[in-house]
Amino acid sequence: MEPAAIRHKNPGAMWPGAIATKWGSKKWVYLNDGTGQGGNGKGNKIATFDNWVDGICAQLDLWRTSKNYRNKRFADAIAIWSGGNNVPAYISYVKARIPGMDENTIMNDAFWRGPMGVKFLQVQAGHEAGKPIPAPDADWIEAQRRVFAGSTAKKAGGAVVAGGGAVVAAQQAGLGIGWIIAIGVAVAVAAFFIWKRK
Prior knowledge:
The chain is mainly α. The protein is built from ten helices and two strands; from the N terminus they run ααββαααααααα. A two-stranded antiparallel sheet has the order 1-2. Helix 5 (87-97) crosses helix 7.
């Protein structure tokens, strides 16, 4: 059986709560893992998402807004995340998979807006699940775009999802603002025509 984070499209393995609900989670389940952490002795809870983008948005939003992690050093944040369990091993796991990241990397909005932030989400989710999360790279980029756009609404048509990734890619490639605006306009026009055909 696949790990719960994969079955529920919840790469952060988040419990139900305000952030999960904000990003579209409407249900949750007990994991029956024997930890007793979910109440009634049933174990942990996990929120369920309809798609990977929503689940990744919730994962990113939690990391960047929670007082436990916001603007902290990576070593301090991961110690809180892991409950202090096997922290050196967790740090080593992440550093081995993300070039340039170290204990003193500050997990602020500049970090989360960049490619290292997206890579961290993928690596951290894979560590928690025990295997890589099968969400495509475009979903991680789209989630990053949505979180920083402050948009929780569903987009009309696949062109917007793909286009959002194109805009982020253009930004990361260092294209000028004129090109980025042109890409954004082209995506909006394409989305309009897709919507009109439905």
